[in-house]
Amino acid sequence: MMVLLALQKPGPVKSLLKAGAVSPESARKITTLGLAEPPLKPLIRAGVVVREDDGRIWLDQARARRRQWRIAAIFGGAIMLAGALVAAVLAM
Fold first, then answer.
1. Continuous H helices in 1-92
2. What CA dihedral angle connects 12, 18, 22 and 24, to 10 degrees?
3. Angstrom distance (rounded) from CA 79 to CA 73
């Protein structure tokens, strides 16, 4: 149920893209985007979302893309490993 609710609401990355906040010149305040601070903290630490000195934020699209690929690769590798383990157990 909670997953369905989370999928209905756009995440911070999608909200920043939709608002066009993809450079320091187009950065926006968190309050104008309707975002909360807690979901942004890991993205700021990863450098995907950049916070300016005046509190405005913007999305570094190149880092966001690299992070998305890295997460997909980790999940894909985990699924392949689990599949290989199941196949090995069934082959015994």
1. 2-8, 12-19, 30-33, 37-46, 61-91
2. -90
3. 10
